[in-house]
Amino acid sequence: MDARRKELGEFLQVLRQRSAPEAFGFPAGSRRRTSGLRREEVAQLAGISPTWYTWLEQGREVNVSADVLARLAQALQLTRTERAYLFEMAGRRDSAASESPADDAPAALLASLADIAIPAYIMGRHWDMLGWNAAAAVLFSGWLDQPHSQPPNLLRFVFLAASARSLIVDWETRARRIAAEFRADCRTRLDEPALLRLIDELTAASPDFAQFWKQHDVLERQGGERGFLHPQRGLIHYQQVTLHPVEHEHIKLVMLQPA
């Protein structure tokens, strides 16, 4: 039996058994031989065949669609993490995961930026800057220390702002890597309208971005040394650390530790 199908079946079984029948409109009663929902009740809630649902739990080789998975996720009232795991084990892409382009950085995380002494900022799913501290505003003077009508975007800064080319040491190498990191980061969301608009904008406005993007390089975002030629402080180097908050997989907390 395929390991993923087995894991999917066991996962569904655990989800079903932990679900209180009365919370889903079914009587609890003393005639239930086991705790949780029955298979036919889950099938009823999801609008699928009880036999077909049983095959899913048994790990049989059945072709489960994204629509069925979405109905199961809704029927079993799954959390976002549980839903993502369900789709991952079934080898399907969850379109609903890319239908909410708005970023929602945790308020506590945004508030914590003020307590970080080194440059730190929070980026959203399209690399918009959702928040930053005073040290980051000083480092990126002329950009983050200016008023903005909408969240500033790191890609727009790197590829469209003339000041970025003098601030970032070895700009071409870093810009090429940033384009590759961005492609890897949004690889499952390349059909999002807002993302496509950003890519089109950058492609039209920056020949460098258009060239790098067309090369289809893919790199995971990593730490490492970052050099800046600051207009007041001169040449400075940092070690970059990127963290992903739990339950907010598209949000990044980036900190720059002086090297």
TrEMBL record:
HTH cro/C1-type domain spans which residues? Answer: 36-83
> Which superkingdom heads the taxonomic lineage of this protein's source?
Bacteria
- Designated name of the protein: Helix-turn-helix transcriptional regulator
Which species does this protein come from?
Uliginosibacterium sediminicola
